[in-house]
Batch of 2 targets.
Target 1
Amino acid sequence: DAKTTQPNSMESNEEEPVHLPCNHSTISGTDYIHWYRQLPSQGPEYVIHGLTSNVNNRMASLAIAEDRKSSTLILHRATLRDAAVYYCILRGLNQAGTALIFGKGTTLSVSS
Amino acid sequence: DTEVTQTPKHLVMGMTNKKSLKCEQHMGHRAMYWYKQKAKKPPELMFVYSYEKLSINESVPSRFSPECPNSSLLNLHLHALQPEDSALYLCASSQGKEGARGGYTFGSGTRLTVV
């Protein structure tokens, strides 16, 4: 898996937007960008993924740079429940059925 | 059913005990995984099963023995563990041939303590 780089930690206040960055300068043209998060005492859960275009779902938005060397996960209004470790993972088209490999991720703290 | 169910949620075992962790999914996923997670660390891959066959063993000690009796069940048999094996053990499943799209589902894990 191509390498990703994320800040170790970030802080936010409740009800404010949060922008979680991920650098992936060695991304290949067929790598998808996936985000998973892990709430305390839970297993990781899928958040969002994308290839080239920005993506939105009910949980978050994913903004992908034009050169695809970086991306940003956007939580539009952080809640206390969003406090978690967020993992940015690259997955290639030829990796179907293979495991997710986790980096260190970003620990997000949310204050009321 | 969109869940991966792991049992037990907590397990305390002695170093001479034999125990098993169980994982079950009914989403029709054909790939299943075991991960080990130490405190404040990311999950580390242990084993991958694809279509009930072991496809990846990440150099895990033989005191951990995986088993996939059918496409819905995954077991992890534990024997003669060491205190440093204490960790959260996570099970996951995926469609197996979905390509690069999302679709990995994780269980909540078994918190294992070896005494």
Target 2
Amino acid sequence: SQQGEEDPQALSIQEGENATMNCSYKTSINNLQWYRQNSGRGLVHLILIRSNEREKHSGRLRVTLDTSKKSSSLLITASRAADTASYFCATDGNSGYALNFGKGTSLLVTP
Amino acid sequence: DTGVSQDPRHKITKRGQNVTFRCDPISEHNRLYWYRQTLGQGPEFLTYFQNEAQLEKSRLLSDRFSAERPKGSFSTLEIQRTEQGDSAMYLCASSWALPFEQFFGPGTRLTVL
């Protein structure tokens, strides 16, 4: 079952703009992870945020987590054409092993 | 530094045939996971191992699916009597128990004709 839901389903921006993607989930979690997937390829791990953390940064990425609202956001600043990909959030749903993914946000960055 | 590798990358088979996929995790990782991803969906968890023990297999899709990790290193996923609905990308991931970041391989794309 897919617990997470990303929003929007698709996003198109120009290079240099910021991209924000949101994720909502249903059950309590230990942590939430964001992944990137280029067309037809494996997933690349971007960032993990623990349930007791509210914000985390990695390079041009900023992730926030609001456990009271069961939601997270991924901000990509100063986007590049190479950021074009699908972005997924994944939660562990307290299992400690299985990741539950949403359907992803498809990001298109045009030059 | 080698990441997770999977073999083969693509597999085309006829309905009713058996297929086996291999996954080699990051060598230091003690956990190994299998996921399936269909078009337009996120990955779906199937099973996982800690060392050689398969600790969760109730989410394998049917009894036609089985996985092994005989020496706690590489793993195989077998699908018997394949059906067209088995066509998907099969992804393997590995991690430490803690921290929990799962690192994925490139996947094996299965097409059942």
